[in-house]
Sequence to fold (192 residues):
Amino acid sequence: MTKKSRLLVAAAAVLPVAVLFLAASPAPSDGPKYTSEGRLMFPEHYREWVFLSSGLGMTYGPLASGEPRFDNVFVNPSAYRSFLETGHWPDKTVFVLEVRQAQSKGSINRGGHFQADVAGVETHVKDEQRFPRKWAFFGFQNGAKASEARAQDDASCYTCHEPKGAVETTFVQFYPTLIPIAKQKGSYQPRE
Ligand code: HEC
Fold:
């Protein structure tokens, strides 16, 4: 065998392996993880994820109270990177909505509000194989390592997220840095 043909044989052996490697996209390490009963494990590192926006005193439903509260929205970095390229949320997207008490008296502050203790954490997860509607919602008791018994009943969360979310069932219309991307990629649905 000549040197050239030996090289060709070697390339032919390596190529299918390389193709297989590229085709099988491994689950992202920041994707959803579940207990054996199907509860979502608390995404412990969400504070290192990508911050999308804060709302102050938004009154649309979950965890609403008399006092205005802040909410902070985070998404896992692998889903964020994919969204920048496609304008769509990939499988294994995990959103965290962290609700915090608003405080005005403290230290040197004279006006306005700053964020204080966590009042609740909700998540919105895309897992196409696991959930019939592809997405599901999970709530966490304060400090819990796993979500409440089951995914939040789709009805209470979907009634708003499905007809009102600008990209699939997510509220991209309130995440200012994502709006131009979704519009450019054609995934943005204007919602009243
Ligand atoms: C009446 C409308 C409404 C209902 C009902 C509702 N949400 Fe939302 N949700 C919103 C809005 C508006 C936002 C955007 C928040 C922001 O901009 O800070 C949001 C954002 C979220 C997010 C951040 C990711 C995303 O999808 O944009 C999560 C997680 C979330 N909600 C969980 C829940 C859960 C769990 C329930 C059911 C218990 C629920 N929501 C019910 C209106 C609603």
About this structure: The CA atoms of residues 122 and 178 lie 20 Å apart. The radius of gyration is 21 Å. The mean pLDDT is 87.
